[in-house]
Amino acid sequence: MDILILIALGTQDKKFYRLLEAVQKQIDNKIIKDRVVVQAGCSCDFKSDDMEIFDLIPMDEYDKLIEECDVLITHGGVATITTGLRNNKKVIAAARLEKYKEHVNDHQLQIIENFTNSGYILSLDNFDELDKVLKQAKNFKPKKYKSNINKFIKLLEKEINE
Length: 162
Prior knowledge:
- By secondary structure, this protein is α/β, with parallel strands linked by helices.
- It has helices at 17-28, 59-68, 78-86, 107-117, 130-139, 149-161, and strands at residues 4-8, 35-39, 52-54, 71-75, 90-94, 122-123.
- The N and C termini lie far apart (56 Å).
C-alpha cells in the first residue's frame, strides 16, 4: 500500500524551510520512503528531487489530497489542523517561530500545545526528531475532533455585549 504524506505550510508570507529541511533529511536517511506532496506557499522555491512541491494547490485538488493522505504534516495553523482532524487524519504540527522569522510571534506554540494536550494531534517540537514522531504516528489514534465553535461564539457575544 502506498503511503501519502501531505505537508501543508499554509499561506503565511514567510518562509518555513526548517520543516522542509527536516522532511528532506528523513527522506535522505531513508526513513521516509513514501510519496510526499507539499503545499508550500511562499516556500515553494525549496529545492527537492524527492518531494512534489507546489505553491498553492487548487481547493478541489487540496481536498482530494487531504482525503487521500495518511499523515498530514503542517504548521500550527488552526484551519489546516482542524481540516485534517475533520477528515480523521493523523496530524503532526510544527510551529513557525518568530526567532527564525517564520512568523511575527510564537502563537502557534500555544495552538499546537492545546491540540496536543487534548489528544488530537502530535507535536513536532524538535525537528531533528521527526523520525520518532513519524514512528509514533503509526500507532497514534487521534481523539475524535469536536469543534468548540459554539463556546467561542458565546464568549465573543459576551465580550461584545459588555
